[in-house]
Design brief:
- The protein is built from 15 helices and 31 strands.
- It is an alpha+beta fold.
- The strands form six sheets. Strands 9, 10, 11, 12, 13, 14, 15, 16, 17, 18, 19, 20 and 21 form a 13-stranded antiparallel β-sheet that branches.
- Strand 12 and strand 13 form a beta hairpin.
Length: 726
């Protein structure tokens, strides 16, 4: 009760009401305690509740801070168990205020049951908790967003009740029964993916609290069901993650999937419901080889956050440590991997620490991750088989062009951290789009299906190529990316539009760090200072923040180092309105108005620090662009003896003394080009073809050999096929 409320009640009335309340609680608690003493010895239910309690207690970083918070909340709590600063009648879709009531009650309960707290077994605190629970039940706050009603609130209630089961005095049985009944929200059998898991979590809480074996069986079965491959929402056959239809959600709902599954696995540890075997291996595989590869140091790729890209601090993953420690306990076979990831995310080791070079093209999700010790370079695309990045619940209001070949280039990791409020959203890194005077609002919420079918990639797990035949918002372009060790080649061809705006291709748009240096046509180096907007003709190379860009044909560039302004509310209705400012590096190619068959070519050389100009030109000298038109885009890496090509239609390509003929559109990579025994990797970006034929002709001997094959089918459509070539 607050001091204000005490002052409004006569001392005699207040004293009588306190005696009545205390007597009632003691009697109720005694009845409850006698019932609890009649329970069976330790079993799955008690183990689960102990595990939940221990998780809650282990999450307390400072008892002093907890006690200070409890003191404040008790002082401000009203006589009826509410807080005046919580808007219980609010229905907000995001940031729903009433949930704060349950969070505060849980903090009070943690202090009440913690022996290190000065409030341990404090009866006044216990009384306040009971009053708070009773108020929540009577008020029954509801949000317009089903998630708060069917997931968030029931989970908090379940954790609160389980913590209180570890107290000296149990809460009145009738009150607990009533609030447990209120937890019966969310139809577990109708949910999918991360949402199914979230509902299953509070089902497990309820089963443990009520000692309901049948409910526990169902809840556990449904909780671990998402750890299985599906073509619907959830874990895909390529180890990507989809939610809200076939929409890339690795770092949003995919992160909920990881944390939720490990959470449930940890509270079931020690019971016969433990997660183990194939499902544990699948979960670890997704965490290690998909999710963790989207991180660079303590920051994530903006492409994998879904509509969450518009949330403050969303890219910051320094708090991943606790989940990684939990994974290490549950899966000790990967301890070294978990520990290395902890070191990178908390910053005790460099982002390059124990990074193994890898290349993943997720053919189900139209997404590519290229990971090197020196950098990460990821590409987000979209096809008729997948959905564009969603807008919904007032979030991601202007992310219209996010999946149109956006490139996430990270060396340190924080290159894009919280830049989104001041981004020029018509110039997202990597995309080709119309140059509007203002950011374009999303017209379709919850994900718009892509518009083209020729989207895909080829990979051998170390190198690969990705393609995006774009036809969106009045702009057509064939865009491709070719990935090697120190370089990524970015090609565009067939760029055509009849729109009234200029059509541009953006190299990058990130926080400005230091000086921007450019080598022009006259071989003179130019340094662009802060707050500049410069146009450079026939640029040879560009350097910013240790990332080099090389232009094999010379390129007319526009470079901005100006201060940009914006606000979080501009991209997310529920965020602050205050103005955000910052200096931004932005560079783009202007293809002009009404371009017809325009093209571009640039080579990205990340993490060049010492003698950068020489390093950029040296890396680029090993690469030969063999074709860049609307029929073929192809690159040959002489040092690695790797040829990568995108055939948009049946055609032929000559390189390194060979002629390669394809009778079908495809993406292909030929390794060991100079050796007698070669490795050919091939895929079908359309995911519609059943078979094909490659003919390889030795131009010096005129020997020709055909290689007929069947493209991967079923759930492997779009995956890469390996063919041995002699």
């Amino acid at each position: 009760m607050s001091n204000f409320d005490k002052a409004c009640i006569s001392p005699k009335l207040y004293f009588v009401s306190r005696i009545f309340t205390i007597t009632f609680l003691l009697l109720s608690s005694l009845s409850n305690r006698l019932l609890s003493q009649a329970t069976v010895p330790t079993n799955a239910f008690t183990i689960i509740m102990d595990n939940v309690y221990n998780r809650e207690q282990n999450a307390i970083h400072s008892i002093t801070s907890l006690d200070n918070s409890v003191r404040k909340q008790l002082t401000n709590m009203m006589v009826d168990g509410s807080w005046s600063d919580v808007g219980y009648s609010r229905k907000d879709i995001t940031n729903w205020p009433p949930i704060e009531h349950l969070k505060r009650l849980k903090a009070l309960a943690n202090a009440y049951t913690n022996k290190r707290s000065s409030y341990y077994n404090n009866f006044e605190l216990y009384t306040s908790i009971v009053n708070g629970i009773r108020y929540w039940y009577q008020e029954n706050p509801l949000s317009k967003n089903w998630w708060h009603n069917q997931i968030d609130a029931p989970q908090h209630v379940g954790e609160l009740l389980i913590v209180l089961r570890h107290g000296k005095i149990l809460i009145p049985q009738t009150l607990e029964d009533s609030i447990i009944e209120r937890m019966k929200r969310g139809e577990i059998l109708k949910q999918t993916g991360a949402n199914k898991l979230d509902v299953a979590t509070h089902y497990i809480y309820r089963a443990a609290l009520t000692k309901n074996s049948s409910l526990l069986d169902t809840a556990v079965q449904e909780a671990f069901q998402p750890i299985s491959f599906t073509t619907e929402e959830g874990l895909q056959y390529d180890y990507s993650f989809m939610q809200h239809g076939r929409q890339l959600q690795i770092g949003s709902y995919g992160a909920v999937f990881i944390s939720g599954e490990y959470h449930i696995a940890s509270i079931l540890k020690g019971t016969n419901y433990e997660l183990k075997g194939e499902k544990l291996a699948m979960l670890s595989n997704y965490y290690i080889n998909t999710y963790l590869r989207t991180l660079r140091g303590g920051y994530s790729d903006f492409n994998v956050e879904g509509r969450g890209v518009s949330r403050v601090d969303i890219l910051n993953k320094h708090g991943e440590e606790n989940l990684l420690k939990e994974a290490a306990i549950l899966d000790p076979s990967n301890t070294a991997t978990w520990n290395a990831a902890i070191a990178r995310t908390i910053g005790s080791k460099a982002p390059s620490f124990q990074i193994i070079p890898s290349h993943n093209h997720f053919y189900c999700a139209d997404y590519t991750i290229h990971t090197q010790p020196d950098y990460s370079f990821n590409v987000r695309t979209v096809s008729v088989r997948t959905k564009r990045t969603e807008s919904g619940n007032g979030e991601n209001l202007v992310g219209k062009f996010l999946p149109d070949g956006s490139t996430n280039i990270q060396v340190r990791g924080d290159e894009y951290y919280n830049i989104m409020p001041i981004w020029d959203w018509n110039k997202i890194p990597g995309i080709t789009s119309r140059e509007y005077d203002f950011d374009q609002l999303m017209e379709t919420h919850w994900g718009e299906v892509g518009s083209t079918s020729f989207v895909g990639g080829v990979s051998d797990s170390s190198y690969g190529a990705t393609c995006y035949s774009m036809n969106y918002n009045g702009v057509k372009a064939n865009k491709s990316w070719f990935f090697f060790d120190k370089e990524v080649v970015c090609l565009g061809a067939g760029i055509t539009s009849s729109a009234k705006e200029n059509i541009t291709t953006t190299l990058n748009q990130c926080w400005l760090k230091g000086v921007v240096e450019v080598k022009g046509a006259d071989n003179k180096s130019i340094k662009a200072k802060s707050h500049d907007l410069v146009s450079i003709k026939s640029s040879k190379w560009l350097l910013h923040d240790g990332i080099g860009y090389y232009f094999p044909e010379g390129q007319n560039l526009l470079i901005s180092t100006k201060e940009q302004t914006g606000s979080w509310v501009h991209i997310n209705d529920s965020k602050p309105k205050n103005e955000i400012k910052g200096d931004v590096f932005k560079s783009w190619i202007n293809h002009g108005v009404n371009p017809s068959d325009a093209h571009y070519a640039y080579i990205v050389v990340p993490n060049v620090r010492e003698n950068a100009p020489v390093a950029i030109e040296s890396a680029a000298s090993m690469l030969k662009i063999m074709a860049n038109n609307d029929t073929i885009q192809a690159v040959y890496n002489e040092k690695l003896a790797i040829a990568e090509a995108i055939f948009y239609q049946a055609s032929s390509l000559s390189l390194a003394g060979l002629t390669i003929k394809c009778n079908q559109p495809c993406a292909m990579m030929l390794r060991n080009v100079n050796n007698a025994k070669k490795k050919l990797y091939i895929s079908d970006p359309t995911q519609q073809l059943s078979e094909g034929k490659i003919t390889i002709v030795n131009e010096s001997t005129h020997n020709s050999k055909d290689y007929s094959f069947h493209f991967p089918s079923g759930n492997a459509k779009g995956a890469s096929l390996l063919i041995d070539v002699e």
